[in-house]
Amino acid sequence: MRTNFTPSQLTDPHLAEAERSLRTCVHCGICTATCPTYVLLGDERDGPRGRIVMIQHMLEENATPTAETVLHIDRCLSCLACRTACPSSVDYARLVDTARVHIQTRYRRPIGDRLLRWLIAKVMTRPGLVRIGLALAPLGRVLPGRLSAMARLGAKAKRRAAAAPPPMVGAAHRRIALMPGCVQAALAPGIDEAMARVLARRDIALVPLAGAGCCGSLVHHLGRGEEARAFARRAIRAFEASGCDGVLITATGCSAHLKDLAHLFVDEPAWAPRAASFAAKALDPLELVEARGTAPRRLRVAWQAPCSLQNALKLADKGRKLLAGCGYEVADIPEGHLCCGSAGSYSILQPEIADALRARKLGNIAGLAPDIVATANIGCLHHLSGPGAPPIVHWAELVDWADGGGAEPCRLR
After folding, report:
1. Residues 340 and 304 sit within 8 Å (Cβ to Cβ)
2. What contacts 328, CB < 8 A, 6 or more positions away?
3. Which of 40, 265, 277, 413 has its CA 20 to 30 A from that of 50?
4. What is the structure's pLDDT at 152?
């Protein structure tokens, strides 16, 4: 498609990337069938093609975006199913990321929205504050609107939280740094514990990355660019000092962000090569684990491949084959390409759409009559858990059980 950016605008590397993606789009509409919000709402403005038009006008005009534009861009889940489906290889991620930064810096949101986004950025990125929030969550149910939704999320999480010892580190031929993450560290510490056991049996030592915190993906998707870069710099410094061979995190939404970290620094020559080196050594656990044991019981497992695993990491088939190799009966979920509605903080910011997508996903899962659901991302796991859902675990817990360690996953009901 034709664009009308000025030469001075295109001196901004992020805007130049967005412009290249805009020029690639031919408006064929193939992407709309894969977009969860378009499928759900049937509104062209809530599909990739419509959003691309709004993003182009907003960026070209370099002005305050309209409330309508903000509404429909906010409804994007960043699942990137459109990018996978696109025959022209439009990099929609670059477009929506640039749009979100533009909105964050140019648009004055209502006070309630600003407060909620501030709480997400400041609380959910820090495990200590998340734990405090879990303790206070029952008191927050009297809050209005989406603040109440955030409190309900915390109350639900409190029932899953459990104390866990630090990840096991054994003698190994490889040392991989473990990013501590943020929300998962408070909600489900047993995932990292199971992953450490799984990797130790494969001669890989998982070493907690001292000095690193949240990966920054939560604030990145809120358009808070400088905060995202601050988290990234902290992680890069910590990894450079660790002496480890690689770095990983056990949530695929975060893992995909780490592998794309270099993009954050395209306009910072001092940090760009360091970020690129870090991203090149970022690993997803599925790249390291092969089946070696057989589960004591042949469970029927519904494989919930997160959007980040399907559309960013491209490892959904690897996860399916790994579980099958461990002796599980693996069933693919119908409409598996549609997001479950978690999408980082999306279930807090857009609870009605998120709940509708959750119900649709659970309906498709129910038709399979599984013993258990396996996923690879804490957001999906937590969002889908609860009333009407079968037991849901991280795939590492199933592999750990097949290897001969850990508890029977179905006891996690």
Report:
1. yes
2. 295, 298, 299, 300, 301, 374, 398, 402
3. 265
4. 55
> What residue type is assigned to position 262 of the chain?
A
**CA angle, residues 198, 304, 188, in degrees to nearest 5:** 50
Residue 295 lies in a domain: no
Residue type, 76: C
- 390 shares a domain with 332: yes
Q: Residue 191 corresponds to which tokens in the numbers above? A: 């995932």
pLDDT tens-digit map of 248-289: 999 999 999 999 999 999 999 999 999 999 999 999 999 999
Total domain count for the chain? 4
CA-to-CA distance for 182 and 77, rounded, in angstroms?
20
φ, ψ of residue 191 in degrees (nearest 5)? -65, -50
Last residue of a domain, one of 254, 287, 320: 287
The dihedral sign for the CA sequence 227, 228, 230, 231: positive
Query: Does residue 169 lie within any of the structural domains?
Result: no
pTM: 0.89
In a domain, 31, yes or no: yes
d(CA 155, CA 188): 14
Task: State how far the Cα of 179 lies from the Cα of 237, in Å rounded to an integer.
Answer: 12
Grade residue 27 by pLDDT with cuts at 50, 70 and 90.
Answer: very high
| Token couple for 129 | 């504050």
pLDDT at position 170 over 80: no
3-state secondary structure of 380: helix
Long-range contacts (CB closer than 8 Å, 24 or more residues apart) made by 122-125: 124/182, 124/183, 124/218, 124/345, 125/182, 125/213, 125/214, 125/216, 125/218, 125/219, 125/231
Q: What angle do CA 207, 213, 214 make, to 5 degrees?
A: 115
Q: What is the DSSP string of 202-268?
A: TTEEEEE-TT----SHHHHTTT-HHHHHHHHHHHHHHHHHH--SEEE-SSHHHHHHHHTGGGGGTT-
pLDDT greater than 70 at residue 151: no
Same domain, 277 and 185: yes
pLDDT grade for 136, boundaries at 50, 70 and 90: low
Question: Which residue segment(s) compose the domain that 329 sits in?
Answer: 300-412
Say whether both 132 and 44 belong to one domain: no
Q: Which two tokens stand for residue 411?
A: 């006891």
> Is 1 inside a domain boundary?
no
Mean pLDDT, all residues of the chain: 89
* 219-229 confidence digits (pLDDT tens): 999 999 999 99
Q: Cα separation of 24 and 2, whole Å?
A: 9
